[in-house]
């Protein structure tokens, strides 16, 4: 038996040298709400995804030697075709077709596919820092 009972995902964090740009992207693309953030010795922006889930955007330390974004496990370039096997976070939407059209209208490069033997469609793309994102269709 697992040691933790009732475990659920609370938040994900993304480190960025420009958290305002990243927050504006997530607010515009997904409609996430910016919520009050605690005051740390570095800048943070918290975005509410659902009542029990958030994204924490954290100011990148100037001493960090890592690249800005992970891109994917298989590619050193921003190529969304690599994301089904690369590092990404997935959200679900009930308005899949109009959501994908909104990405195209904004000029965001995407890769689409369907889950074999299931009625789920997927679109893969990157945020401004190169973090992989997936959006899956959800029945309305």
Can you count the beta strands?
8
Class based on secondary structure composition and strand pairing: alpha/beta
Order of helices and strands: EHEEEEHEEE
User: What's the overall average pLDDT, rounded?
Assistant: 87
How widely separated are the two ends?
35 Å
Number of domains: 2
Computed over alpha carbons, the radius of gyration is: 16 Å
| Largest sheet descriptor | 4 strands, mixed
Strand order of the largest sheet: 1-4-3-2
- What is the CATH topology of the largest domain? 2,3-Dihydroxybiphenyl 1,2-Dioxygenase, domain 1
**Share of residues in helices:** 10-25%
Sequence stretches where pLDDT stays below 50 over 5 or more residues: none
Give the class-level CATH name of the largest domain: Alpha Beta
The CATH level-2 architecture of the largest domain is identified as Roll
Beta percentage is 25-35%
CATH superfamily of the largest domain: 2,3-Dihydroxybiphenyl 1,2-Dioxygenase, domain 1
Chart the SSEs and their pairings.
Layout: E1 11-16, H1 19-30, E2 33-35, E3 44-50, E4 53-59, E5 88-93, H2 96-105, E6 111-114, E7 121-126, E8 132-137
Parallel strand pairs: 1-4, 5-8
Antiparallel strand pairs: 2-3, 3-4, 6-7, 7-8
């Amino acid at each position: 038996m697992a040691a933790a009972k009732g475990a659920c995902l609370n938040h994900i964090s993304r480190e960025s040298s420009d958290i305002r740009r990243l927050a504006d992207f997530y607010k515009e693309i997904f409609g996430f709400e910016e919520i009050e953030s605690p005051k740390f010795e570095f800048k943070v922006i918290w975005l509410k995804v659902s009542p029990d889930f958030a994204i924490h955007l954290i100011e990148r330390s100037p001493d960090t030697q890592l690249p800005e974004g992970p891109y994917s496990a298989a590619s050193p370039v921003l190529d969304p075709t690599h994301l089904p096997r690369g590092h990404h976070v997935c959200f679900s939407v009930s308005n899949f077709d109009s959501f994908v059209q909104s990405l195209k209208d904004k000029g965001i490069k995407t890769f689409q596919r369907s889950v074999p033997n299931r009625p789920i469609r997927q679109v893969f793309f990157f945020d401004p820092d190169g973090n992989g994102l997936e959006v899956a269709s959800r029945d309305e």
